[in-house]
Design brief:
The chain is mainly alpha-helical. Helices cover about 70% and strands about 0% of the residues.
Length: about 325
């Protein structure tokens, strides 16, 4: 038996697996729309209608008045809109946990064999509760780190306000926001490490797997951050470019072309999220290592080839 050593995240591995899991990407894309469809419907009947009634000439409506008009239009439906947004976030969270658990189980428990998409999600249901605990662990770590950061910063901000020292107050706020973003990135990366480690037979505790994932993130900081950025940047660009196109090109607003561009950008983001997560599979030490001495031949004389084409139709 070969002793398993931990690997490093690999964007190439993530690209290969995400390409194989294209049907899962399509479902992720559809769920992201369906989860927030009620909220979009409420916005369409209120805020969007108020926007369409505004004059189209530049400068016809003062910039400050646009926000007031939108706020007034959304005020009667603020409760159903808030409920729709919260329920959408909850549904998206449950789905995200499910497909993460399914991909890990499919890759580690079956060796990435040819299975149907329903079987991938079925495997996810087996470990679903463990990954719920992992996500709650990550959320708790994020909250605790945020509280530990902002409690002393709040005292500094209050002292700056009392002393009328605006520069010191703004510096504390900027530093706090920057460190908060850094904490969120670390927790995100540690959770992806921990999710794959939780799929190993020797790891049963979600909390310990997340802690090991955090240690892995600090052990391989450059490769982890690089892999995260490789997938995050195109996902961010897809979102920003779509919004920018709607703002800069007035002729695109409300057209099928802009809708198609938005749908394509959402599909790109779904591909990036699946690819990013799959890129962290090599940290288990079970995949991404093509050396023949690490795979034992099966009864048919063939090893477990993780690079074989996969059909999840």
């Amino acid at each position: 038996m070969v002793e398993r050593s931990r690997g490093r995240p690999s964007p190439v591995w993530g690209w290969r697996r995400a390409t194989d899991l294209w049907r899962l990407i399509a479902v992720c894309w559809a769920v992201s729309f369906l989860a927030f469809a009620p909220a979009l419907l409420v916005l369409r009947t209120t805020v969007f209608r108020a926007l369409s009634a505004l004059p189209g000439e530049p400068g016809a409506v003062p910039p400050g008045d646009v926000g007031l008009i939108l706020l007034e239009a959304a005020r009667p439906v603020i409760f159903p809109l808030g409920l729709a947004v919260v329920s959408g976030i909850f549904v998206l969270w449950l789905w995200t946990v499910l497909w993460h658990a399914g991909v890990v189980a499919w890759q580690l428990w079956t060796g990435g064999r040819r299975v149907r998409l329903g079987e991938v999600l079925g495997l996810g249901m087996v470990a679903w509760w463990r990954y719920i605990r992992l996500s709650l662990t990550a959320l708790a770590a994020l909250i605790l780190a945020g509280v530990a950061l902002w409690l002393p910063l709040e005292s500094s901000i209050r002292a700056s306000l009392s002393a009328m020292n605006e520069e010191r107050m703004m510096l504390a706020v900027v530093v706090g926001i920057g460190i908060t973003k850094l904490i969120a990135i670390v927790v995100w990366i540690a959770t992806m490490h921990g999710a794959w480690l939780l799929g190993l037979p020797e790891n049963r505790s979600a909390v310990l797997s997340w802690v090991r994932g955090l240690w892995n993130a600090f052990r391989t900081p450059l490769s982890s951050l690089f892999t995260w950025l490789v997938w995050l940047v195109p996902a961010w660009l897809a979102a920003v470019l779509t919004i920018a196109a709607g703002i800069q090109f007035e002729g695109l607003r409300g057209t099928i072309a802009l809708v198609a561009l938005s749908l394509f950008a959402s599909l790109v983001r779904s591909y990036c999220w699946v690819g990013m997560f799959c890129s962290f599979a090599p940290v288990t030490g079970l995949v991404g290592r093509p050396e023949p001495d690490e795979t034992e031949p099966s009864e048919s004389g063939k090893g477990n080839d993780d690079s074989a084409p996969i059909d999840i139709c």
